[in-house]
Amino acid sequence: MTAKRATALVLASALLAACAVAPPVGDANDNPAWRVRSAQLAKIDRWQVQGRIGVVRGREAWSASLAWRQDGTQYAIDLLGPFGAGRVHVEGDANGVTLFTGDGQQLSAADADELIERATGVAVPVAALRDWVLGRPQAGVPARLQADVRGRLTRIEQAGWVVEYGAWQAQAPELPLKLRAEHGDVQVRLSIERWDT
User: Fold this and answer.
1) Most CB within 10 Å of its CB: which of 54, 68, 151, 159?
2) What gap in Å lies between CA 54 and CA 57, rounded to an integer?
3) Cβ contacts of 68 within 8 Å, gap of 6 or more
4) Does the pLDDT value for residue 152 go beyond 90?
5) Where does the record locate the signal sequence feature (predicted)?
């Protein structure tokens, strides 16, 4: 191979690699685009998503279809297929939460995190997911944030959890389509098929 040809191949490889690189990521606190985006996201308190959720803890795993409706502090979550059951419906507000199973059982608790842990044995941060699903940290809890040049969070480290975002919807306000949250041996994955805000 001639030196000229080898140089051309190296340059072509470098150009292809440059095209595959994700947008630069940095500390969100130093990112003016994140500050603007954060203010926009803070105004969203009514939304609905449809998609899938998967939870893994060690060798245990479950997944379900997900429909989540949030209206301020009130919410309703429908899960189809978790825990070997047909349907689970969760509804709650600032005063408490109740889980209804397809076979007529009912569980209540002070908050969704406690309820899901009692029902499944897995600590899933439902309260934090309410914010993480929008691409923002949970309010009032210290966090380390990384954002891309467009102000979209790429990583949240909060309350021992690491949240990473894998895809975003194209239309404004570019809400997340894929996120993964990990804490110890617990991993929660959300794949969102539809957003309504």
Assistant:
1) 68
2) 10
3) 48, 49, 75, 76, 77, 78, 133
4) yes
5) 1-22
